[in-house]
Specification:
Blueprint (H helix, E strand, L loop, with lengths): L2 E6 L3 H12 L4 E7 L2 H11 L3 E5 L7 H6 L8 E6 L3 H4 L8 E4 L4 H17 L6 H14 L8 E6 L2 E6 L3 E7 L2 E6 L2 E6 L2 H7 L5 E5 L2 E4 L3 E6 L5 E5 L4 E4 L4 H6 L3
Parallel strand pairs: 1-2, 1-3, 3-4, 4-5
Antiparallel strand pairs: 6-7, 8-9, 8-12, 9-10, 11-12, 13-14, 14-15
Length: 255
């Protein structure tokens, strides 16, 4: 049996090194290479590899955002390739979620390949991968490692849109989706508000109600509303209702 592998890394020498290592395995076939996260998302959907060796730190769209942009049933087995230090990387060593630390150690890589073979032999999609990644990211943040998104990869129709987090005015929950309000447009993204909140820097975004997040720098004015609620006036003229239950947030902002 041959396992189809996709290599994703923004460094050409790293891609060549991974291809060489996989070429030495009789049961792995490299079906593609990508130099960035957006291309990785498209290649995963088009090529449907069994496993992706995914660099964590890449410009524009990083490895975490690649996983977040795909549905669980669209994800192959994922092996993160990273230069995080040994202490931080322990957060990723959970169940089927695996990692390879740069520079790659041959013995550790062999264990990773065995782990891949075992997972793929079960022929069951890893439905909980995204949840475990969020848990791992939370652990990294608690340990003082910055892991908040600067960009979001949003899949719309047959393309992937790269959205700067700084451009988001506010976010509205919509079931298993969120509405990202950018300038005078609304972009629909597949994510719960809880999951997206975990990916955004709490120094930049605050939750003002059960269903809304607002980026602090876009708040122009806070007005007293009815029944103790608040109305936030944003820089583009939009208004967002804030619940009185979140008044401690407004106090922290000095509003």
């Amino acid at each position: 049996m041959s396992y189809r592998a996709l290599i994703v890394d923004d460094e050409p020498i790293a891609r060549r090194g991974m291809r060489t290592r996989l070429a030495a395995q009789d049961d792995f076939e490299v079906v593609g290479e990508c130099a960035d996260g957006a291309a990785a998302i498209e290649s995963i959907l088009e090529l449907k590899p069994d496993v992706v060796f995914l660099d964590v730190k890449m410009p524009e769209v990083d490895g975490f955002e690649v996983v977040a942009a795909l549905k669980p049933e669209q994800l192959p087995a994922v092996v993160f390739v990273t230069a995080f230090d040994q202490y931080a990387i322990k957060a990723f060593d959970v169940q089927a979620l695996d990692y390879v630390l740069k520079p790659i150690d041959g013995e550790r890589f062999e264990r990773t390949l065995m782990r891949i073979r075992e997972q793929l032999a079960r022929k069951q999609p890893d439905q909980d991968l995204a949840g475990r990644i969020e848990h791992a990211l939370a652990r990294l943040r608690q340990d003082g490692h910055r892991a908040y998104a600067d960009r979001l990869a949003v899949r719309t129709d047959n393309r992937v849109r790269i959205l700067e987090v700084a451009d988001i005015l506010w976010v509205q929950a919509a079931g298993n989706y969120v509405e990202l309000h950018v300038a005078n447009k609304v972009i629909l993204m597949r994510s719960t508000l809880t999951d997206l909140t975990a990916r955004l820097d709490p120094e930049r975004f605050v939750q003002v109600s059960r269903s809304a997040l607002v980026q602090v720098r876009h708040i122009r004015e806070l007005q007293q509303g009815f029944d103790g609620d608040y109305v936030l006036l944003l820089n583009n003229g939009a208004t967002v209702t804030g619940s009185r239950r979140y008044r401690q947030v407004f106090a922290r902002l000095g509003l």
